[in-house]
Amino acid sequence: MAETHTDKRPLSPHLQIYRPMLTMMMSIVHRITGSALYFGIVFFVWWLIAGAISAEYFAMTQAVFGHWLSKIILFGFTWALIHHMLGGLRHLLWDTGHGFKLTTVEFMARANLVLSIVLTFALWIGVYLVRGTL
């Protein structure tokens, strides 16, 4: 006969049981940035297609992307791309069997977060310095 569970506790651990940790949050953010990149690539493809269609359509698309709200979205897309890339490199290191010590895992999670922010700002500042405008 099948066993019945009379107690009210869950059968497996879930988010309500675990104490939030940086590595857990980074895993969730990695998934979120992956999804954001999936949807954000539509705008990149739109920009590429606009350049292939005509100069007028490309100018209109550039005007849309030049709006302050579009720039904020593009900044977020840039951060998501860099953050997701650094997270992927972290996972690649783990795939080689390295970096599993708890201190190393924690350091890499912090480095991923800090570097993604620093590199995003550096990229945008670099583009501003080269082009002279954002």
Commentary on this structure:
With 134 residues, the chain is an all-alpha fold. 75% of the residues lie in helices and 0% in strands. The protein has a domain at 67-131: Fumarate reductase/succinate dehydrogenase, transmembrane subunit (3 helical TM bundles of succinate and fumarate reductases, Up-down Bundle). The protein has helices at 22-53, 55-65, 68-95, 102-131. 10% of the residues are buried. The mean pLDDT is 91. The chain contains 4 helices and no strands. This is Succinate dehydrogenase, cytochrome b556 subunit.
Give a brief outline of the structure.
With 134 residues, the protein is mostly helical. The protein is built from four helices and no strands.
Q: Indicate the mean pLDDT.
A: 91
Radius of gyration: 21 Å
In terms of structural class, how would the helical and strand content be classed? Answer: mainly alpha
Q: What best-fitting shape do the alpha-carbon axes yield?
A: elongated
CATH topology of one domain: 3 helical TM bundles of succinate and fumarate reductases
CATH class assignment of one domain:
Mainly Alpha
Q: In total, how many beta strands?
A: 0
Distance between the termini: 69 Å
Number of helices: 4
- What share of residues are in beta strands? under 5%
Tell me roughly what share of residues is in helical segments.
over 70%
CATH architectural designation of one domain: Up-down Bundle
For this structure, the quaternary state is single chain
Question: Could you state the CATH homologous superfamily of one domain?
Answer: Fumarate reductase/succinate dehydrogenase, transmembrane subunit
H/E series, N to C?
HHHH
Uncertain spans:
none
Organism: Taklimakanibacter albus
Protein name: Succinate dehydrogenase, cytochrome b556 subunit
